[in-house]
Amino acid sequence: MMRTLLITLFAFFSFSLFVKAQNIPQQSQIMLSDSAQISLLTNAPWDEAVYSLFGHTSIRIKDPARNIDSVFNFGIFNISKKNFILLFIKGETDYIVAAIPYQYYLEDQKEKGTGVVEQVFNLTQKEKQDIFDALMVNILPENREYRYNYFYDNCATRPRNIIEKYIEGKINYTPTDKDQTFRDLVRESVHVRSWMEFGIDLVIGADADKTITDREKDFLPIYLMNAYQGATIQGDSIQRSLLVSTNEILEPAPFKQDFPVTPLQVGIILLIITLLISYLSYQKDLITLGKIFDTILFFIAGTAGCIIFFLMFFSIHPCTNPNWNIIWLNPLQLIVSLLFFVKSFSKCIYYYHFINFVALLALLLAWSLIPQQLELAFIPFILSIAIRSGINILQYRKINRKAVYSLPRTR
Fold this sequence. Notes:
Elements (H helix, E strand, L loop, with lengths): L1 H20 L15 E7 L12 E8 L4 E9 L7 H7 L3 E8 H11 L3 E6 L3 H14 L6 E3 L9 H10 L3 E3 L9 H9 L3 H10 L17 H8 L3 E3 L4 E3 L1 E8 L12 H21 L3 H27 L18 H6 L8 H20 L12 H28 L6
Antiparallel strand pairs: 1-2, 1-5, 2-3, 3-4, 4-6, 5-10, 7-8, 8-9
Helix pairs in contact: 4-5, 6-7, 9-10, 9-13, 12-13
């Protein structure tokens, strides 16, 4: 990862020096030759990082006559930036556009084992020049930073918009002929990593389950690549193919094996442990054991609820609000988990468990009616929390009955 960052930074500054050497103060003055070509580079998914599972898109400008062979990358970010994690969670991550010498780009992809497909565009000389000039303006210091949005404004949609803007005519993209949602496409990208799929399904809400257009699907590089394949440009009088050729530059390396235990398996194990502890705490009166287990269970659930709550109400990420997972993962669980051993709050805890049990039962009964795709792997986790709330209700009533029976009777 560090090597990749160093290559990118070195490449960026190298290209900056190249631009200065050409006496280009504000925008491109380089006139491309007739032999220049512009192409789209699509990186296949790479399983060493979360973001790389979605693939990547760049634009390559190649002009041997002008000694230019550069890749314009719209996906550079600085993870060492102050408050990067907080800004990322809030959806306020700024990405940078930079031009990287093609040889460095290729070396980096080879080292990572990333597959690369190149699609060469069928453009007029004016279209090539206009696109190149626009890219040069994009990498200027005052323009190169932009607010990243993983569904609507990312490394794939930006190149598409530039190509589309400067082509003379209308692009007729190849349709997918499928009804799909953002969640469908995200799952398609991360299904090789079950825990990542589980986590993303937790934090994206109901809006991710609305059917999207083919254009909206272009946020995924592979879908943009497929949209270009077979596409045409409709001019005033003639129609031409959008692409001249498609070439596989690098073959992708096989993915590493996924974590052997899936979220569903962990959920089932948790459910079995929950049933066992519930039996011991209620039938064998091991109340302290039950409280310790509840503290851990509800603390983890409450922490997850805080993240979901923050994404719903304090972030600008798309498709995070509404999120029905807030019913079984809510921030109140974090507070409640700290009060299980406080005797003076026992009645308040009882009422909380009663409300929580009813809410979780209603969630499970209305599962198919909820306007959000909830993963089946959630069910054993929901059942575990519901069972513990139910047992706590019974435990409270059992203790109260014993207290009543132990009172001295009067004649």
